[in-house]
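REQUEST FORM: STRUCTURE PREDICTION
Request ID: SP-0412
Submitted by: Lab K.M.
Chain count: 1
Length (residues): 353
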Amino acid sequence: MNNLTKYQQGKRQKNFLIIIFLIILLLLTFLEIAIGPTSLKLINVIKALFLQGDKANIRVIWALRMPRILAAILAGAGLALAGMVMQSLLQNPMASPTTLGVNNGAVFGANLAIIVLGCGAISTTQGININLNNPYLTTICAFVFAMLSTFIILLLSKRHQFASSVIVLSGVALGALFNANTTILQYFADDTSLSSAVFWTFGDLSYATYLEDLIMFLVILISFIYFLIKSYAYNALISGDDIATSLGINVKRTRFMGLFLASLICAVCVSFLGIIGFVGLVAPHIAKKIVGLDHRHLVICSCLTGSIMLLMADFLSRILIKGVILPIGAITSIFGAPLFLFLIIKKKRGKNA
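STATUS: Completed
RESULT:
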C-alpha cells in the first residue's frame, strides 16, 4: 500500500468518524428535547417539532427547551473550538479559555455589575430563587472585561513578537489580578449581591434566549469558517514558527487573529451563560485522539465533541437529582477533570510503551 492510498484511506476514516459524531449529536439533541421535568412521548415530540398537536407540548419544546439545547450545542462547539485554537497557536496542551484570563475577566465584570451596580436580587415567589435585576447589564460588563483581558494580553505580547510563553504568562498574571479584584468585591458585598454573583459564576444554560443563541451562532460560524480556511497555517505551526514562516505564513498575524477570535467566542459564551469549565480544555484532546492533528478535520471534530460534551452534561444536570437542575459548570468540571486526568495518564503510558 503506497503513501497516497494510506492517506486517502485515513481521510475516509476520519470523515466517517466525524459523521458518527454528528449522528450522536443529533440523537442527544432529540433525547434532550424529549426528556425533562415533563417527559414527552415520541409521537408528541415529533408533532411539536413541526408545530402540530398539543399547544402545551409546543410551548414546552420551542419556548423552554429549545433555547437551552441550542445554547448547549453552540457554547460547547464554541468553547471547544476556542480551546483547540489556543492549544495549537500556543503549542500548549493546557491552554484553554482561562489561559488569556477571559473567564477571570468575565467573572470580574459580572461581579462588578451585580455587586457595585446593583444587578443582583432574590425573589421569593416559590421559595428562595436567585435572579438578576438587569441581566443585560451583567452580560455587557462580563463581555467588556473578558475582551479587555484579551486586548491587554495581545498588546503586551505584540512587544515580544507574540511569543507563546509571554502570552501564557501574561494570561496567568492578568487572571490572578482579576481574581483578586473579584475577591475584594465579594468581601464587601451584602448577602443578596454575593448570592447572585456566586449563582452567576456557576454557569447556567437557562440564561439563553433565541437572541443570545443567534449572537453566539453568528460569532462561532464566522470564526469556524476562518479557522477552517486557515487550517493549513495551523498545520504548519505544528512544526514550529521558523518552518511556518518559510512556507509563507505570517506567524504574528495568524497568532493574533486566532487568539482574538478564540477569545471573542469565549467572551460571548461566558458573558451569556456564566463559567463553563473544562469543555475548552478536554474536548480538543478527545478530538485529537479521534482524528489526529490535521486541522482540516480537527476543527470540525472539536466542535462536535464540545457540543456532545455539553449536551451530555446538561442532560445529567437535569436527571441526577429529581426536581433539581444542577449548575452546568459544576457538572462539566466534575466529569471533565477525571476525563482529562485519564487522557494524561493514557498519553504518558503511550510514551513509555
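NOTES: The beta strands are 120-123, 129-132.
Reviewed by: T.R.
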